[in-house]
Amino acid sequence: MSQALTAAAPQFGVHALPPVLEALRALGDRMPANRVGGWGVSLLRRICLALHGQPCDVVLFGSQRARLYPRDNRCEKRAFAGAHLWDGAERDFLNRCITGPDFVFVDAGANVGLYTLSVRAGVQARGARLAGVAIEPDPVNAARLRFNLAASGADEVRVVEAALSDRPGRLRLASAGQANRGEVRAAADGDVEVPALPLLDVLRAAGLTRVDALKMDIEGMEAAVLAPFLAAAPAALKPAVLLLETGREGRPDLVDLAVRHGYRTRMRTRINTILELAPSDR
Q1: What is the torsion angle, in degrees rounded to the nearest 10, for the CA atoms of residue 143, residue 96, residue 33 and residue 19?
Q2: Which of 108, 155, 162, 178 ranks highest by number of CB atoms within 10 Å?
Q3: Parallel, antiparallel, or unpaired for β 213-216 and 241-245?
């Protein structure tokens, strides 16, 4: 693996669940995608975590390795057991987009890399190749992201430890003491200062010539980042698919921004919206 694990991060498997608990956890991955299945997954998750604690080394999406910290990150908790229920509609849509010999995926607000690993599993299942960019500014999340990619042998994913912004510079993040590390966000009095980069600069630095899908979950900064990007990006770099966190309120400002640049809504879930670029605009 080119992304070497640090001495402070023991090799994957050190924190594996005992066989009985792993069997219970894996049972969650076979639960039906309905209310009863959700209840069953929640119960199995509580049992496993009560008896094992964290971190937990697990195999996700059939082929990807991850070290999860379920107690301080909601997405890690949800993926720990019953991963098929976590953003299942969104991830299924992305999997259906993998139709060619290679797939270019950009994960903006990558957190610990679970979306990237899900896409990677789909790409591998089809015998295709992945070109990935995972963008995560928070140092704690980025360390977990790098570990998960290294444990999975995901050398084809480039990690960018920076916040996305409308201009190059520096931003402060509120990182310490988060009950849900998926909600680390920019704050004037934040405890961590990180580089900030425009999305177009990141894509060009990664050497990308196209983007098949972009997932963006950057805690309210989506419109501020997407507006200048969509205005300046060449047609070839405009993602064919946008997966945006729009929350329960739907973020009509963000959706309208994408529509003005040639996108059309394909799916709306509880907190996300998926849009597709019209063929004439690609």
Answers
A1: -50
A2: 108
A3: parallel
Residue with tokens 């959700």: 38
Q: Is the peptide bond before 55 cis (omega within 30 degrees of 0)?
A: yes
State the Cα–Cα distance between residues 241 and 94, nearest whole angstrom. Answer: 8
C-alpha to C-alpha distances, 281 to 75, 176, 189, nearest whole angstrom: 34, 42, 41
In the chain, where the domains are located: 19-84, 88-281
Give the list of residues 6+ apart from residue 182 with CB closer than 8 angstroms, or none: 73, 74, 75, 111, 217
CATH homologous superfamily, domain 88-281: Vaccinia Virus protein VP39 (3.40.50.150)
Beta strand pairing call for 272-277 and 263-268: antiparallel
Q: Which of 66-75, 177-186, 221-230 has the lowest mean pLDDT?
A: 177-186
- Beta pairing partners, 158: 133
pLDDT tens profile 216-242? 999 888 999 999 999 999 999 999 999
For the stretch 9-54, pLDDT in tens is 689 999 999 999 999 999 999 999 999 999 999 999 999 999 998 9
Among candidate residues 124, 125, 107, 126, the one with its CA nearest the CA of residue 115: 107
